[in-house]
Design a protein that fits this description.
Layout (H helix, E strand, L loop, with lengths): L2 E10 L12 E6 L2 E7 L8 E11 L1 E3 L11 H8 L9 H10 L2 H17 L2 E4 L1 E2 L6 H12 L5 E6 L10 H16 L5 E6 L9 H13 L3 E6 L7 H7 L4 E4 L5 H7 L5 E4 L1 H7 L6 H7 L3 E3 L13 H11 L4 H15 L16 E4 L6 H4 L6 E3 L2
Parallel strand pairs: 1-4, 5-6, 7-8, 8-9, 9-10, 10-11, 11-12, 12-13
Antiparallel strand pairs: 1-2, 2-3, 4-14, 14-15
Helix pairs in contact: 3-4, 4-5, 5-6, 7-8, 11-12
The structure holds N-(iminomethyl)-L-glutamic acid and zinc ion.
């Protein structure tokens, strides 16, 4: 057994209503779990001491990322900054580059991206496939993702690949047939880009068929929905008890009504609106309506090539009407709930020691000092 006493905590965020935080808080981590929380002057002895000298909070949970890819779409991003529109068509470029990459190269790219996330305070990350879109390339994407996380998502229904452009129904059958049966071995989740506003993505009915097949194969459900315009994604997610509907850029009052009281979290991805020059969703309205909101990066080569949750928090506060406190909760506890992980995004006795420290006196600085590398993993 080895224990570490963490002191010098200027602010401790636990996200646990039952944990009382004293004025000069300290905590002890024993064998990877929080074993004691209390006042520093009453702390029991521990093997080592670690002065945090800053704000301690649960590690960020990045519940939406597409890290398994090769290729570069910086030119596409640059065109959008002067008016080009995003419609998902650029995904084909990444599929081509990803299929051409060796296993070693893809693994190294994912490893570097996960390391970049961890340097900025992220703990658990969800990773999707979706740039293979044939059986061997989807399976190796999932295998590589599984080397870095248990939160692996099968996204064979990202877009209809070029070789199936004249046979959409054939591609849906292919995804829910052989590809899904083999993918289910590596993935916990199935996701679908439900977006009738894109010619490349999937309609509500196609999405329903894919998600139900995923559930029958033992996977749990997530949905990319309501990104490019109003559509069926959010209500479908609620109807099928998906853990999360992600993007939520265009939500109607009926969508919000459906989300209220449901077990489906609305995950906002502010880096996507930033990188596609799109209007930001109204997170204030979601929260005020009683919807559970999560924040994630959506790190991917097309709509947001950023691994930084602190950046997402700054955007959510500046552009989406969230308070810093709400945004930090959404990027920790909210995103944990969107993965149905009750053990994450919280600091309490018994929880895993997934801890982040901010080089700042309190969490408000995450929004107040945008772009400054304040966050890092504590252990
Ligand atoms: N919307 C669908 N998928 C990604 C974008 C993928 C890409 O453009 O490469 C997203 O979450 O935004
Ligand atoms: Zn995505």
């Amino acid at each position: 057994m080895s224990s570490t006493l963490i002191t010098g905590i200027t602010e401790l965020i636990t996200n646990d209503p039952d944990t009382e935080v004293p004025p000069d808080p300290a905590l002890i981590v024993t064998d990877g779990r929080v074993s004691w929380i209390g006042s520093a002057d009453r702390a029991p002895a521990a093997d080592t001491a670690l002065p945090a000298e800053g704000t301690v909070l649960p590690a960020f949970v990045d519940s939406h990322s597409h890290l398994v890819f090769d290729g570069d779409r910086s030119v596409e991003f640059t065109a959008r900054m002067i008016g080009a529109r995003y419609d998902g068509g650029g995904i084909a470029t990444t599929v081509e580059a990803t299929r051409a990459a060796t296993d070693e190269r893809l693994r190294a790219l994912v490893e570097a991206r996960v390391a970049e996330m961890r340097r900025q305070g992220t703990g658990v990350v969800e990773i999707k496939s979706g740039y293979g879109l044939n059986t061997p390339d989807e399976l190796r994407s999932l295998r590589i993702a599984a080397e870095f996380t248990s939160e692996v998502t099968f996204l064979g229904a990202h877009v209809v690949p070029v070789e199936y452009r004249s046979d959409r129904a054939g591609y849906v059958d292919f995804v829910i047939g052989e590809m899904l049966q083999r993918a289910a071995e590596y993935a916990r989740w199935i996701d679908v880009f439900c977006e009738p506003n894109s010619p490349h993505a999937f309609t509500g009915e196609e999405s329903r068929e894919i998600l139900l097949a995923g559930r029958a194969a033992g996977l749990e459900l997530r949905v990319h929905g309501n990104q490019l315009g109003h559509g069926p994604g959010a209500q479908l997610a609620v109807e099928l008890d998906a853990a999360s509907v992600d993007h939520c850029t265009y939500l109607s009052d009926a969508d919000i009504d459906a989300l209220v009281g449901s077990a489906t979290v609305a995950t906002v991805l502010p880096g996507v609106e930033f990188s596609t020059h799109s209007p930001y969703p109204d997170a204030r309205k979601l929260i005020d309506s009683g919807v559970t909101v999560a924040i994630a990066s959506d790190c991917n080569p097309g709509t947001c090539y950023s691994t930084s949750i602190p950046f997402m928090i700054s955007l959510a506060v500046r552009e989406m009407g969230m308070t810093p406190t709400e945004a930090v909760w959404a990027a920790t506890r909210g995103s944990a709930l969107s993965l149905r992980r009750d053990d994450l995004g919280v600091i309490k006795v018994g929880s895993p020691a997934e801890l982040t420290v901010l080089d700042a006196p309190n969490h408000l600085h995450l929004a107040y000092r945008p772009g400054v590398p304040l966050a890092r993993r504590l252990l």
